[in-house]
TrEMBL record:
A Gene Ontology biological process term: tRNA wobble position uridine thiolation
Residues binding ATP, per UniProt: 154, 175, 182-186, 199, 243-244
Cofactor(s) the protein needs: Zn(2+)
Pfam families: Rhodanese, ThiF
Protein name: Adenylyltransferase and sulfurtransferase MOCS3 homolog
Any one of the GO CC terms: cytosol
Similarity annotation: In the N-terminal section; belongs to the HesA/MoeB/ThiF family. UBA4 subfamily.
Pathway assigned to this chain's UniProt record: tRNA modification; 5-methoxycarbonylmethyl-2-thiouridine-tRNA biosynthesis
Active site location: 301 (glycyl thioester intermediate), 465 (cysteine persulfide intermediate)
Keyword hit for Metal-binding: yes
NCBIfam families registered for this protein in UniProt: PRK05690.1
Encoding gene (name): MOCS3
EC assignment: 2.7.7.-, 2.8.1.-
Length: 509
């Protein structure tokens, strides 16, 4: 069989093998980082194992499959090389980041009682020390303080770096995710070389490089109902730098139960918001939002987009609020919500309601005294990754492979791309008709679709979007509006799946 493969496929297989071997080697090399005498023995062993295993598996693969496999290996290689480089760098670096905390029961924050600022501290913080409201006494409070930053993304990066710069003694950094290329436009503490490594460690490294006096405690874990109360009580104050509703409720309830103030920020497109919950008798998040919003009304950065500067602004302001809470300077945003409109260049502050004595968690007789299942409560995952909507039956959906066959057989149909026009400028399939989901029920669009169906003499409409969520909603909407014997389906996984399985030249965004 192998002999029947084209020359091209064979050379692809060779490349995949080479790449696979490197993945294995680098993994091992990471493990034995400094024991290079074992390196060559390992190389030979891995080489012979990998060749036999992979050759027999890949003999019958198509060229497309081989290209995809190669890309996967190469990406894995880059991430691993970055990790290895990081390990080698840290061997020569005095400011190494402690490895991330896995045993949540056992970590401790070393108490920093700062009775006197050192000469070095006076020199480093001199420009803020001479502010009368802060002064040496405020600086000592900062040095003795510990702040937990939940989420090391667009908001977490600026808040972490400013708190470290200001001399906060200990920063806890939580994020379960790893650095991706699409993070770099706004998550400014990560670097190209750190793609693939833990976000919490990456932020830790940047923070340490700026101020080695700060103790860093990274947690490569998801904050959940199981982990939250093992971590939060050990810190003085918490920053919510996350991006999903379930985590917002979890953080709120955990901070009320642990009696910690919560500095909460959010940013989307060109706008941001900021407030402080559960501080000095002020309201908590549940006092303001007793019920979660319907999941389908929540937009995140990866769907709605965000200009990087906007979380930059809000993250900096979160750091400022934290500094005020710790030092007692000025007046905080408790019971007030700050709204930032980046496009108009406007800040506004609105008054929030005061604490509700009937609040389920911070009220006089709370019914929530321990953490609950927040994904169930919100009807949404505690991540903004893929909403994975499922509103259609199996017979109303087709896979990208099935759609490819329809295209190859030249079966007459309408391909309806329901993304925004700006997204079609990024990438699109040939002959797609664009009607954004939000406009799909408009009379003129329904009329256009009816006319196209009748002029093409077809009953078939295939709806396409970026990841296969909006396309399902489009199918439901069209079924309601068209009311006829039509074959309307959605293409599962959308253009992202098309890129993975059919045409890897389509960019994933
Ligand atoms: N429950 C949680 N525990 C730990 N980290 C969380 C939790 N919920 C969200 N996060 C983290 O909060 C961060 C939010 O940052 P942001 O929205 O800027 O990043 P993102 O999710 O990487 O962005 P994108 O939507 O572009 O993929 C993410 O890094 C995410 O992993
Ligand atoms: Zn409340």
């Amino acid at each position: 069989m192998f002999l029947q493969n084209s020359y091209e496929n064979r050379s692809l297989i060779q490349n995949i093998l080479r790449s696979t071997i490197w993945v294995e080697i680098i993994k091992k090399e990471c493990y034995i980082a400094s024991k290079f005498q074992e390196f060559f023995k390992l190389y030979l062993k891995v080489y012979s194992m990998s060749s036999n295993k992979y050759l027999s598996q890949m003999e019958n693969w198509s060229k497309e499959d081989l290209i995809r496999e190669l890309q996967k290996r190469e990406e894995e290689n880059i991430a691993l090389k970055n990790q290895l480089q990081m390990m080698k760098n840290s061997e020569n670096d005095n400011n190494t980041i402690p490895s991330s905390v896995k045993e949540l029961n056992s970590f401790a924050i070393l108490p920093k009682v700062c009775s006197e600022l050192s000469k070095e501290e006076v020199a480093r913080y001199s420009r803020q020390l001479i502010l009368p409201e802060l002064g040496p006494s405020g600086q000592k409070k900062l040095v003795a303080a510990s702040v937990l930053i939940v989420g090391c993304g667009g908001l977490g990066c600026p808040s972490a770096i400013y708190l470290a710069a200001a001399g906060v003694g200990c920063l806890g950094l939580i994020d379960y995710d790893t650095v991706e290329k699409s993070n770099l436009h706004r998550q400014i503490l990560h670097t190209e070389k750190r793609i693939g490594i833990s976000k919490a460690s990456s932020v830790g490294m940047s923070v340490k490089a700026l101020n080695s006096n700060v103790d860093i405690i990274p947690f490569d874990v998801s904050l959940t109902s199981e982990t939250a109360l093992q971590i939060i009580p050990k810190f003085d104050l918490v920053l919510d730098c996350t991006d999903n509703v379930a985590t917002r409720y979890l953080l709120n309830d955990a901070c009320v139960i642990a009696n910690k103030p919560l500095v909460s920020g959010s940013a989307l497109r060109y706008e941001g918001q900021l407030t402080i919950y559960h501080l000095g008798g002020g309201p908590c998040f549940r006092c303001i939002h007793p019920k979660p919003p319907p999941p389908e009304t929540v937009t995140n950065c990866s769907d709605g987009g965000v200009l990087g500067v906007v979380p930059g602004v809000i993250g900096c302001l979160q750091a400022l609020e934290a500094i005020k809470v710790i030092t007692g300077m000025g007046s905080t945003l408790s019971e007030r919500l700050l709204l930032f409109d980046g496009l108009q260049g406007m800040f506004r502050t609105v008054k929030l309601r005061s604490r509700k004595n009937t609040c389920e968690v911070c009220g006089d007789e709370p019914s929530i005294t321990q953490l609950i299942d927040y994904e169930q409560f919100c009807g949404a995952k505690a991540t903004d990754k893929d909403k994975g909507l499922r509103v259609l039956q199996k017979h109303q959906r087709i896979s990208v492979m099935e759609y490819k066959e329809i295209v190859d057989r030249k079966t007459t149909h309408i391909l309806l791309d329901v993304r925004l026009p700006v997204e079609l400028e990024i990438c699109s399939l040939p002959n797609a008709v664009n009607i954004p989901l939000k406009d799909i029920k408009k009379l003129e669009n329904i009329t256009t679709i009816r006319e196209m169906l009748s002029s093409l003499q077809t009953q078939k409409i295939y709806c396409l979007c970026r990841r296969g969520n909006d396309s399902q909603l489009a199918v439901s909407a069209l079924q309601e509006e068209l009311q006829g014997d039509y074959d309307i389906r959605d293409i599962v996984g959308g253009l992202t799946e098309w890129s993975h399985k059919i045409d890897s030249t389509i960019p994933i965004y």
